Amino acid sequence: MIKLILIVISAVLVNNFVLSRFLGICPFLGVSKKTSTALGMSGAVVFVMTLAAAVTWLVQTYVLDKLGIGYMQTIAFILIIASLVQLVEIILKKFLPSLHAALGIFLPLITTNCAVLGMAVLSIQNKYTFVETVVFGFASSLGFALALVLFTGLREKIDRSNPPKAFKGVAIALITAALLSMAFMGFSGLV
Amino acid sequence: MIETVLAITCIGFGCSFALAIAAKFFEVKENPKIGEVNNLLPGANCGACGYAGCMDYAKAVVNDDAELNLCAPGGSDVTASLCEYLGKTAEAAEKQVAIVLCMGTDDVAKRRFEYNGIADCRSAQLVGGGDKACTYGCLGYGTCASVCPTNAIEMINGVAKVHPELCIACGKCISVCPRNLIKLVPAKSTVHILCSSKDKGPIVRKVCTSGCIGCTMCVRLTKEEESISMDGFLAKIDYTKEVQNKAIVEKCPPKCIIDTSNN
Amino acid sequence: MNILKAKFKIHGGVHPKYRKELARNEETKRLPLPKILRISTTQHLGAPSKPVVKKGDYVKKYQLLAEAAGFISAPVHSPAAGTIKDIVAGTGATGTPISEIILETNTTSDEDLVGVFPTNDWNTLSPETILNRVREAGVVGAGGAGFPTYVKLSPPPGKEIQTLIINGAECEPYLTADYRLMMEHPKCLVEGIQIICKVLNVQDAHIAIEDNKPEAIELLSKYIKDNGIENIKIATLPTFYPQGAEKQQIFAVTGKQVPSGGLPSEVGVLVENTGTTVAIYNAVVKDLPFIERTTTVSGYGIENPSNVIAPLGTPYQDLIDFCGGAKDGVKKIISGGPMMGFAQATTETTTTKTTSGLLLLTAKEISQYESAPCISCGRCIAACPMNLMPAELSQFCEAEDFESAAANRVMDCMECGCCAFSCPAHRPLVQHFRTAKAFLRAQPKK
User: Fold this and answer.
1) For C176-191, what is each residue's pLDDT tens digit?
2) Minimal-distance CA residue of chain A relative to B4
3) ipTM score of the complex?
4) Does the distance separating the beta carbons of B118 and C432 come in below 8 Å?
């Protein structure tokens, strides 16, 4: 129980996937223009990462380890993650077409989002049990969501504040991301 | 070796099977024509057609039988390709451009007071009715220029000027001008009266030396063509007719008529 | 004891230099009748009144010049006898186009008065008759908005008024017209209050006065006590701007909050300006239409700052000349108070029923700066009496995101100017909000 709580705090705050591990920067910068889109993307990532955690652990334990083909981990995981993302896209297109249109190209890009693959590989590396893996997946996606929504709020305000021309757009966004990342460093040593 | 290949293939098949079922159950029928029509459009998303962007217009064209000649930036080329794709015929709408009907620059038109506020025409209009002495004239703070998606409007000496070769007739400048000075005119028309002041001659002269004084000289010189008429004390061109007597440009006393065919 | 201290403290507000001592202690003077009066037909909120006279007509004093055009409108009467020279288009104090009736005045002789029928005992009149007199006299809110008073005194059925508040706060700097009215005409004021109480069937009335006017508080308190009036009390308010704003005053005196976008009648309160109350008295008791008002002519740029009673349609230049003329170095001329008044481009503008002040300000009284970007210091948020966030709103307006501004309640802004007054970056906040509101009002209703 304690270990689960520690996993959660660690994944969300201390070793935040975006701000500490620098994974998943693509949607972090691409979908952070509007809060509503960011929240939608966060929802999609939570779904994908939690399911991916469960399925990849099962495949790792009962297929890859059993057959001793651990070196196929990357391929197998990517297969699973890609299918999950496609599933999310189909569901979104059916039930939330406006969000699907708003996310556009960034939805299928969750496939190549190193945060999802990174989470799967890390939980294998840390030798987590099934429950711990699922909790780790869920917590990491929450950490991603937190970083994304925080950053979106900052970015909306900064874009409104009319930065100097040379800094407009991505430039000031990257600087802000760096500062936010430094702020999150304050959590180190918490657990 | 064989187990590896088999295992990965099984995983692959498993995933695709699950996806196929999902695709079947959660299918969303969409007309493929919409995407193809969208590709024929310029993609400027300017909204001149009256729809919310190119994709929206594509949907309307395919589903709601919208007019095919609504795309202003695309012009007759886009209308023709839409007609070809959908197998319909449509009349190409005449190309239009925006024009600012005022030439009261800061050297000819007076300002009533010292304005100390936001450099935006709509904001300036709220302060004492705007700092231009002529209540109809261009305030010159450039709101129209800042909303133009193609940077076609230049502020020259306190008055906005549209460069017709850059104008895509999207209408954004018209909707922001607080004095309704900008009008859409046929691109082929070259003669324009650059004044919108409805005041009487003596009042106009007091505030601007380039304003129309309502002398009706231009109306008389184009009597046969009937291309110019008076709206109170302001001369107005009827753009459905062509102005043939170009002598009005020299004869106009305040010189507020221009002929752009010389440029 | 009929003086109470207002219990509730509102959020926000600022403390500008009041400078009321300039025009405070002298008696109100009467302006000699000007030769030309240009009377606007837009003296009130609502539809401009329709002229019933034409060029060349001869009119008597108090004669109807323009009738009310619709429910929310008011008639305008002639302040003097004379000939109508013309009816022309002109520009009002706010810069909007108006229609002006130009009257060339004769000296007022008694034969040139339209008959008035004074009623000294208003107790005999029914509420309907009283309301009719108020309506026909063209009484409108003299505090600045100019809302037709008879509409305000006819709340919709189901909305009972329990409390009447007479706004004697006069929180704008420089202005002392209402203060002089309280000092010089306590009888008219108190009787006017009683008339309103009768019309609305209200038991409780308060005269709200800021504590920087102790003489007025004392004088009115004594008058009320000496005349044995039980239902009127004086509520003293802490002095700051905008204590005189309707919603803020209601909260300070009663603790009730008027809902966003709503009217005071929804919380059972009615607020009336002192000038309006005296006009009601004149209309009901003396059967006099609203044809003149007191304007404070003040500022360091005028020779003799004072309060002047002038007929409607007096050009500002006449007021300035009467008060000794303008000094050198006048940088700004404001119609109204310095916080919410309107800067004038010309002194040819004329007075209306809502012209409470004419200020000639020199360089040391005004400020002109280049505005800078918002530094998120939060002073504007601390100062806003409507609990809005001016910093956020101005950023939305600058980015032309008017929908987000509307979502953040920009329509609730009362344009009091507290935010712009406190901004260290000298941002034109109120102008941003006025632009946003104009844009949102022009949107077609969904």
Assistant:
1) 999 999 999 999 999 9
2) A69
3) 0.84
4) yes
